[in-house]
Amino acid sequence: MSDTPEFLAKRLREEGEKMVKFFRSLRDEHWQKTVYTEGATWTVRDVLAHFVTAEQGFLRLFASILAGGPGATEDFSIDRYNARQLEKTKDLTPRELLAQYRAIRERMVAWVSNLKGGDLERRGRHPFLGETTLAEMVKMVYRHNQIHYRDLRRALEEE
Fold first, then answer.
1. How many helices (H) and strands (E) are present in the chain, helices listed first?
2. What are residue 43's phi and psi, to 5 degrees?
3. Is the pLDDT of residue 1 over 70?
4. Which pLDDT tens digit goes with each residue over 50-70?
5. At what angle do helices 5-24 and 94-113 cross, to 10 degrees?
6. What pLDDT sits at residue 38?
7. H or E element at residue 46
8. pLDDT for 16-41, tens place per residue?
9. Structural domains counted in the chain
10. What's the per-residue H, E or C state across 11-33?
11. 18-21, Cβ contacts within 8 angstroms, sequence gap of 24 or more
C-alpha cells in the first residue's frame, strides 16, 4: 500500500462515492432506523451527520498539523464533540446532509491531492489514534467510514 497523496486521494474519492451511492439508495423509512444504542442513540441519519461533522473537524485538524500545530488536545473528548455536532445538525434533512457530505469529501480529496513530498509524515495528535502521522490520519478518514458502513448495513439487514 502506498502512502502518496495521489493514492490516498483516490481511496478517499472511491470510498466517498461508495457512501453516497449507499445513502442515495435508502428509502425514507431507513433514515430513522437505529444503528447504535450505547451512550446516545444514533439513527442512520445521525451516522450521516456524523460523517459530515467528523470530516469537517478532520480537515481543520489536518490543516493545523500541516501548519505546525500539535493536533488535538490531550483532553479532547470524542463523545462530547460528537454530541455537540449532532445537536448542531439536528434540523438538517438527509438530503441536505448528503449534499454536505459530498462537498466536504470533495474538499478533503482536494486537500490531500495538494499535499507535497514529506507532508504526510508530519506528526500530530489525532483524537482517536493519538500521536501519529498525517498519512495515518488520512487513512483513518476512510477506515472510519468503512466501520460505520458495516454497522449501517447490519442495522438495515435486521428489518
1. 5, 4
2. -95, 175
3. no
4. 999 999 999 999 999 999 999
5. 170
6. 87
7. helix 44-66
8. 999 999 999 999 999 999 999 988 89
9. 1
10. HHHHHHHHHHHHHHCCCHHHHHC
11. 18/149, 19/51, 19/101, 19/105, 19/145, 19/149, 20/98, 20/101, 20/102
Decide if 44 contacts 30 (C-beta within 8 A). yes
Among candidate residues 75, 64, 74, 55, the one with its CA nearest the CA of residue 134? 64
The domain that holds 9 is classified in CATH as 1.20.120.450
0.85 exceeded by the pTM?
A: yes
Give the domain range for residue 50: 5-157
Give the chain's largest Cα–Cα span: 48
Q: Taking a C-beta distance cutoff of 8 angstroms, is the pair 50, 148 a contact?
A: yes
What's 36's DSSP letter? Answer: E
